[in-house]
Structure formats: structure tokens, C-alpha cells
Amino acid sequence: MILYELIDFDTLRVIWWALLGVLLIGFALTDGFDMGVGALLPFVARSDVERRVAINTVGPVWEGNQVWFILGGGAIFAAWPPLYAVSFSGFYLAMFVVLAAFIVRPVAFKYRSKRDSATWRTCWDWALFAGGAVPALLFGVAVGNVLLGVPFHLTPDLMPMYDGNFAMKFLGLLRPFALLSGVVSLSMLLMHGAAWLTLKTDGMVAIRARAIGTVAGMVAAGAYALAGLWLAFGVDGFAFTSEVVANGPSNPLYSEVARGGSWLSAYAERPWIAIAPLMGFVGIAMAVRGLREGFEVSTLLWSKLGIFGIIASVGLTMFPFILPSTVDPDSSLTVWDASSSHRTLFIMLVVTAIFMPLILAYTSWVYKVLWGKVTEDDVTANSHSVY
Amino acid sequence: MEIGLVELSRLQFALTAMYHFLFVPLTLGLSILVAIMETVYVMTNRPIWRQMTKFWGTLFGINFVLGVATGITMEFQFGMNWSYYSHYVGDIFGAPLAIEGLMAFFLEATFVGLFFFGWDKLSKVAHCIVAWLVAIGSNFSALWILIANGWMQNPVGAEFNPDTMRMEMTSFFEVLFNEVAQAKFVHTVSAGYVTASVFVLGVSALYLIQDRHKDLARRSIAVAASFGLAAALSVVVLGDESGYSASHTQKMKLAAIEAMWETHEAPAPFTAIGFPDQEARETHYAIEIPWVMGLIGTRSLTTEIPGINELEARSEEMIREGLIAYDALMTIREQRDATPPEVRETFEAHSDTLGYAMLLKRYVDDPRDATEDQIAMAAEDTIPGVAPLFWAFRLMVALGFSFIAVMVFFFIRASFYRMRFPRWSLYAAVAIIPTPWIAAELGWFVAEFGRQPWTVDGVLPTALSASHLSIADLLITLAGFLIFYSMLFVIEMGLMVKYIRKGPFQDVPETEAWQARHEHRLRTHDGQGPFATNPAE
Questions:
Q1: pTM of the model
Q2: B514 in any annotated domain
């Protein structure tokens, strides 16, 4: 079967690089507001009924949204196996914390309303808070570390080895620039969650969400701008020093890479990518305005645009690098040498082309069925069936 | 590599996988049972069926969420703890996992929310379709996971690429239609159906004993017993199919399960019971049934099944052949494009056995430096622990057959004895609720422990697959999982018990309205009104 040769290997790699971005963005846009609502929960909703209103805005959809995260993991495994192997084992303890958050969150959603005790419910509220805030922060920290480079190398057998002592593996991730990235992602998801609550609730919950969301949006824009400056002056980029073979075998050690220069030189080479950070700033600015003015649908859409721009800008800035290595730059994973085989990428693309439109179609239908605000009356009237 | 690290990684994987599979079988089966109940509701309009759908649906939901939550660990643990495995076979193994997300998990997770929240927002038929989509999604999930697992047992459609130092896919269709995967899929989902049927049967029996919710309990027993009977038969038949495919794909596993030390003249006998002794390589006090093993394993009277000792000798040959491949691989790696074509040819001729040379990496950094003793040790490593497999398998099979007996009994009672169940049988039904879980976990134990020392049979040794983490890393996460998972288990069981005790939520106005509409039809033959006795009795 040579059907897969219909699309060149290097083209497929770029497509899968873009699809990786689509999945991450899909996750941030959908599960992002679930995490935002969770992190906002103790602040926007004080009484039990208010909290149930906030929780029930995401109650029917968080499960589907979380699949973006799981599918992201699966797609990295299938399309970028070295990336999956290096990053998941390299960020081991941080991954464990994220896992714990993603395990406790579904359980909290589902079990919170199953008992009436106030202590029971308060415990699950904190679980929802941590389950939203911690991953929202850590995902940004991870992206910051990717930009800084990660201390790993590959043996000639391509076995990933992580260089860094035990304490470094978790605390070492919390470098200042990475923490700033964490602030960007946490604040932008808080803004997104606030935009969602503005759309899906009214009364005090919506009012508080708008107030917090406005501040969060401004923090996100400020931190994002600061991170850009930091990248310009304080962080080294990476670049190939050997000839780039875009359709060669996926062996990172076949190419030579050196540290130096700036990531932002990408904007000189490919000026059009400036559209991504521009979208980021415009989206956030408009979302903040919408939150202040009390617009609903448009605020959520602007917020989505802002998040889209911010995440896309990271990928576009680093292209073709995916995971640079600080201790052995030659081991760095790039679009050209960290993918699956030509055949696997093609098969996975066919499968994705069939199922992604279906997923988007039925997900949209579900959101349409659930359209409308969640009110305190809904929650109290259907106490036995909602969260 | 420290041995301790690999063992801790294995322990953590076993723990989290088996914990995950506490919730999966019930999800697989109960999703279908609930969808069947809702279908009956849509077809008959009887409120009792809606009440059943909601009641079992609630229990389904409590269970489902933990299946989802613990499944995330499974999806991520390959990269976290088995990074060399992920690199080495990700090109093949990653694909079914990603397709599972695209095709199945998205479906079930998107619609499960609508199932619980959509009662008032959807028409009856639409809601019923949603219930079926959840069930189909769950079962498709199992299909893709078992295609992935089947490939670990029988790695077809792939070959080693020296340039990328990993296995790469050569045929997606071979991976997809791997006979091991297909047999395993039906075996596993059937086991899930049995689990859910025994669960529904047991909880309903409890209600009959306590003399409450009898309407719901009797109907539930009728559904569970008929569905469970079909499933229990299927589980045994497809288990046999798995055994048959193992006889030509995983001979060592089969021989170990049967504690067959020596190759026996065909047709081989089946050791019903005995005490396998791995040191002495014999089975003490064995009770043998002539011919049966040959018939099950090969479905013929003339094909021989090789014994453990013979297979060990074959492994040793494979290790020696693997060393030729390994040597050629090292040359290819050094010289890359300048490699003489005959070296590449040598490699390709022997690359199937490369994995066997890798077994030596446990003892020596460069397998080519291995001593004769080390080669003998590596060959012995290809024999899994015989006694645990022998017993686990027998217990699983015994449980499997007993489920058929239970389902036949309740099916006959439900069909021909007007739903009258002797009291002892109700107590028994409650008592056996945990047994399908035991059988399912034993089944996974046989499948995975029996594959040792490989993660991918004949391709990649377990000892090589693990991530280079520190022992402290593993101890932290292991302790974390233990504490965290135990807490969740206690909470989950507490809620299950609470909701079973609470019983179904009865929508009184709906039930009365329905009864009023059907009063003439429900009037019993002695002229009593439907409200006098239970209308469905």
C-alpha cells in the first residue's frame, strides 16, 4: 500500500504539528472554561445554591471537554512518540500533580451533590478549585519550560534520559519565566471561565464573575506582554546548525542544533506570524471590554480568539522546534525529526479527517440542546437530577 | 538499570490498571442494560421502565465517573513511566489509543452529560438514542484499547527501523484485524456484560429479600438474566478462542498457564489441578484429563503443543540469532548511509529476533559481550511465573462456568416459574456480586503477567521499557496513587451503598397518570382494580 505517499512526509509533519496545536487550543477553549469556573468557584459563588448554579453551567459538558485533554495525550503518543516519551517522563512529578487534579475534578463534579452535608460539599468545592486552578497554572509553567529548554538528552538507543536531580524535577520547573507563563495561562483561563459564567448565569454569580474576569483579562494581557519582552531580551532561542532534512527519518540525533539567538527572530523570518500575538491582544482587550459592558455571546467568542492567539503564538514562534534540550541541544525534538512514520501520520490524518467533523457536529448539537442560562430556580426545582 | 525501578514501575502500572478495571466492566455492561431498559420504556411507555432507567443510570453514573478519572492515568502513564516503550512502539501503539479518543471516548463522554441532564430537554426517542450512543461509545472504547493491547500480545504489521531505532507500522489492517485483539475484545466486553448482569441481579435480589421495589427488581432480573446468560456463554466461548490463538501466537504463555513442562505427544492432556514447581520443573500431584489440552489448544488431535523446556531452548536460539541482528544494527548505526548493503540484508533477515538480544541488556550493556551463562539466564527469563498463572487461570475459568450456571438458573426461574425465586437463591445472588470483578482481574493478570518478560511479546523486554526515573519519584507517586485511590474507592462504595439503600426515585404523578389511562387494561382477572395490587404482578 503506497496510498500514504499521496501526501509528502514533510507536509504531513507540518499538518500534524498544526493538529497538535488544534488539539491544545480545543482543550483550552472547551475545558479551559471548566477549569476557569472551578478556579473561580469560591469567589463568584458564596451560598450553596449559587455554587450549584456555577457548577451546573459546566455540569453536562465537562466530561466531553475533558476528552480534548485525553485525546491530546493520545494524539501526541500516536503522532509524536518521542515528544510523548520525553515530556511525560521528564515532567514526571508535575504530570502526577496534573493527573491528580484531573482525577479529582470529575469526581468532585459528580459526587458533590450526592450528599447534603455542608462539610462534604465544602470539601468538593475546594477539590474543584484546586482541580481547576492547579492545572491551569501548571500548563503555563510547562509551556514556559518548553520555551526555556528542558534538561534531557537521548542515548544512541534514543532512550530519553532526564538530567537534573530529584528536587529539580518538580521545583526546578518553577523558574521565574515559567512562572510568568503560568500566570498568563491561569489568568486567561480565569477570564474565559468568567466569560462563560456571564453567558450562562445571571444575578450575583454573573456580576462577580464579570468583576473578577475583567481583572484577570488585564493581568493576562500584561503578563503576556511581559513574557514577550522577556523572550526578546532574556531567553536564548535554538536553531539548526546542520542542514535541515524535512522528510528524513525521525531521529533527533541526526541533526545538529545550537542554542543562541532569539526565539523572536522567527518574526523577522516569517512576519505574517505576528498575527497570532495580535489576535491574542485584541481578543483579550475585547473580552475585557465585553465583561465590563456585560455583553454575553461576543465576550466568550473574543475570549476564545484571545486564547487561540496566545497558544498559537507559542507554537509559531518556536517552529520547527517542539521540545528543545538545554544540556544536549542535538537531542532537541523538532517537527522534522520527532514524528511517527509517514504511514502512521497518514492513517491518523485520515481517521482525524473523518471523526473530527463528526465530533464538532455532535458537540455543537449538545451545546445547542443545553443553550440558555442556568438559574437558581432550575437548580432547586431539579435537585435530584442536576449536580 | 536498577531492578528496583522496573519492579516499582510494574507495581504502579498493575495497581492503577487493575484499579481502573474495577470500574470499566460495570460501565461496559450497565451502559447497555440501561439503554435496553430505556428502549423498553420508549416502546411501552410504562413509567416503571423510566424509573428503572433512572435508577440504574444513577448507579452507572457513580461508577462511570471513576472509570473516566482513572482512565486518564492509563493514557498518560505510558509516557510517564514507560518512556522507552513509548518511543519504541509509539508509531503503532499510539494510533489505536488516539483513535479510541476520536471515535469512542468523545462520543460517550459528550453524550453521558446529556443522558443525565437532558431528560427534560430531549424527546423520549432522542434521549433513548443518547443512551445508546453512550453504550456504543463505551464499547468502542474497549475495542480500540484491546486492539492496542492485542498488539502487545501479538505484534503483527510492524517492523524495526534502524534509522529511528523503533518499531514502525507496516500494515494498519494487520494491527486492526489482529486475531488476538478480536478475540480479546469480545471476551472482555462479554466479561463486562456478565459483571453488570450479576450486579443488577444481586441488587435486585436484595430488594426482593427486603421486600421493596419489587416491580423494579423483578423486571431488572428478567433483563439481567437473559442478557447475562448470553454474555456468560460468550465469555467462555471467546475465552476458548483466546486460548486457541495463544497456541500459535504466545506458546510460552499457554505452556505456562498449563504448567506443561515437557512437550507431550499430541493430543496433550489437560492438567485439571496440580502443584507446579518452577524449580524442579514439574507439577506435583497433577490430575490430568487426556486429550483435552490438545483439543482446546490446537483443535486437532495431531498438532503438538510445545512444552516450557522446549520453548526455553528455542528462546536461546532466538537470542543467538538476535545477536546477529544486534551486531548488524550497531554497524548500521555507526555507518548510516555508508552501510554495506549486505549488512542491511543481514539485519533484515534476523530483525525479528532483535528483541531477544535485548533481553541480555538486563545483564550486560552490550549484548554482544554476554557470556554463555548470561545467555542461559536470559533464556530462562522467557518463562513467566508458572504457579500464579496456573492458579489464576483455573480460578477464572471456574468462575466463568459458574456464571453460566447462575444465569441459567435465574433465566429459567424468570421465564417459566413466574418470577418466583427461592430465598436461598436471592441470598446467593447478593453474595456473588463481587465475583465477576475477581474473574476479570484474574483474566488481566493471566494476560499481562503471562506475557512477561516482555512488554511487547518477542519485541521489547519489560526491563528495558521503563523510564529512567529515580526510586524516590516512584515511591512518591506510588504512595500518592495508593492514598488517593483508596480514598476514592471508599467514597465511591459509600455512595453506591447510599443510593442502593435509597432505592429508585418514584415519579408519582407520572405513574398515576399512566395507570389511570390504562385502568381498563390493567384490571386483573378477578376484577380488582389496578390500584389494589401492584399492576404489573
A1: 0.91
A2: no
